[in-house]
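Worked example 3. Consider a protein that binds FE2/S2 (inorganic) cluster.
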Amino acid sequence: IEDRSMEEKEQTEGGLHFVGKKDELMEAKRSFRTIEDRDILIIYYQGVFYAMDSYCYHAGGLLQDGDIEEINSKLCIICPKHKYKLTLAEGECLYRGTNPREKPPVPRWYSKGVKQRTHTVTENNGEVYVKLSDRSDWIESDYYQGEKGKIERAKA
Ligand code: FES
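Given these inputs, the predicted complex is written out as C-alpha cells:
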C-alpha cells in the first residue's frame, strides 16, 4: 500500500492529476473537473477516454451537453450552442464547405485546425489521470479559461 501511494505522488508530480476511478468515469460518460484552475471535460465514449477544455472556443458553449457524432471518420462533439464540430482526439474544428473552383462544387468537410485544447488521459490500475496539454502556443479555447473569458461566459 505504501508503495502505491508513493507511486501516486510521483504521478501527480509528473503532471498527472488523478480524476477518478475508471468505472465511475465510464458510468458518468461526461465528467467535469478543474485542474490547475482549468475547467476540463472528460469524456468516455466507445471504450476510450478523452479530455478537452470544457468551454467551446467559439463563444464559451458548454461542451458537456453536446452530442457526439462521427464526421469524416473522426469522432466529434457538437457544441450545443451553435453546432460547431470539434474532434475529440485533437480539438480540430470541422466544417462543411465547397470549393467554388471545383466544377460542380461538391460539399466536403474541411478543418479549421486545432481550436479546442485537448489533454492526455491515462489509466493505471483502474484509476484515471489527466495530464494537461503542454503545447505552448495559443489555442483559441484558452480564452474561456482566462479571467476575461470567464467573465464573458458568465454574462452570456
Ligand atoms: Fe460553441 Fe458557438 S459556442 S458553437
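Take a moment to read the result before moving on. The chain has a mean pLDDT of 92. Residues 56, 58-61, 79, 81-82, 84 surround FE2/S2 (inorganic) cluster (CB under 6 Å).
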